[in-house]
Design goal:
7-stranded parallel beta sheet, alpha/beta, Rossmann fold, binds ligand FO1
Length: 319
């Protein structure tokens, strides 16, 4: 079976680990990763979501944190601080730095981000084909108003420095309108037997991937069933601050509202947590097959069970 999954960072990566545990060696998984969170720091290109997927599936992730490398050290960051060079609020460890150095060196030499990602994955062997959504630069910016007035900040500044404590007034994936899907993205979607939306952020992760012209259209037109898993349980994000960015696009932070926002033109099936069983009927009324199952990714086996439920629902709704 050919499975395509659109994925953001931590939630997407953890779901993919369960998916890998649920499928067999004959199944092929292609992951289309969000690159709207990418940030340029110290002259280096940092791709947090691609790296989180790569490290998580490759066994190099810092498990508790969910991002960055295990057994990390922080000498470079400390040295930068001595030079008065920030940002101090973004944690790039020494081991992680090596990834950004290799990536940036290859990009400078003329390789595309997809080629670089493939090269990095030779080391990490994530067990999936990891494609960036686009080789073109896309950067999510968030419009906020604070004591400095109304301004746009990079998504990482909003998320990490400001902890999403200020209301997001608008989310803009800068560059997405002219970005092209990376090589292989549209082909993988068209050839998929199943397309999954993991419980990633529907606005700044899945939403950004879908904002690349051609990707949303390809998913909607794909012959494969499309099944999503709710990142919202009981009216709150399972982790992260998805409610903040949902408010910016006028979507309530409920499992039902997120499903309806994707809409039946895009998704055929939707999994909500058992805590949200009451929303199943409303989602089904909107033309989306819906089931309530446990959606807490407490460990790999519980996550694999979620993946099995998503694949089972895909079979039931096969177009
Ligand atoms: N998240 C944090 O909360 N604080 C950090 O300092 C931080 C650094 C960081 C460095 C590399 C990387 O790949 C991810 C990093 N993240 C950090 C996670 C990241 O900000 C977000 O969780 C994702 O971009 C959202 O998917």
């Amino acid at each position: 079976m050919r499975i395509v999954a659109l994925a953001g960072g931590i939630g997407g990566a953890r779901f993919l680990r369960g998916l890998l545990a649920a499928v067999g060696p004959q199944d092929e998984i292609t992951v289309i990763g969000n690159t709207g969170d990418d940030i340029h720091l110290y002259g280096l290109k940092v791709c947090p979501d691609l790296d989180t997927v790569m490290y998580t599936l490759g066994g190099g992730i810092h498990e508790e944190q969910g991002w960055g490398r295990t057994d990390e050290t922080w000498s470079i960051k400390a040295e930068m601080k001595e030079y008065g060079v920030g940002p101090e609020w973004f944690g790039l460890g020494d081991r992680d730095f090596a990834t950004h150095l290799v990536r940036s060196q290859m990009l400078t030499a003329g390789y595309s981000l997809s080629q670089v990602t493939e090269a990095l994955c030779v080391r990490w062997k994530p067990g999936v084909r990891l494609l960036p959504m686009s080789d073109d630069r896309v950067e999510t910016h968030v419009r906020i108003t604070d004591e400095q007035g109304t301004r746009a900040v990079h998504f990482q500044e909003y998320w990490v420095r400001l902890h999403a404590a200020v209301d997001a007034e608008a989310i803009v994936p800068v560059g997405a309108d002219t970005a092209k899907p990376a090589p292989g993205v549209l082909e993988a979607i068209a050839a998929a037997d199943v397309i999954l939306f993991p419980p990633s952020n529907p606005v700044v992760s899945i939403g950004t991937i879908l904002a690349v012209p051609g990707i949303r259209e390809a998913v909607a037109a794909a012959p494969a069933p499309v099944v999503g898993l709710s990142p919202i349980i009981g009216g709150a994000p399972v982790r992260g601050m998805a409610d903040k960015v949902l408010a910016a696009v006028g979507v309530e932070a409920t499992a039902e509202a997120v499903a309806l926002n994707y809409g039946s033109a895009l998704i055929d099936g939707w999994l909500v947590d058992t805590a949200d069983e009451a929303s199943v009927a409303a989602v089904e009324e909107a033309g989306i097959a819906c089931r309530a199952v446990p959606l807490l990714m407490t460990d790999v086996e519980a996550t694999a069970e979620m993946a099995r439920a998503a694949l089972a629902l895909a079979e039931q709704v096969r177009r």
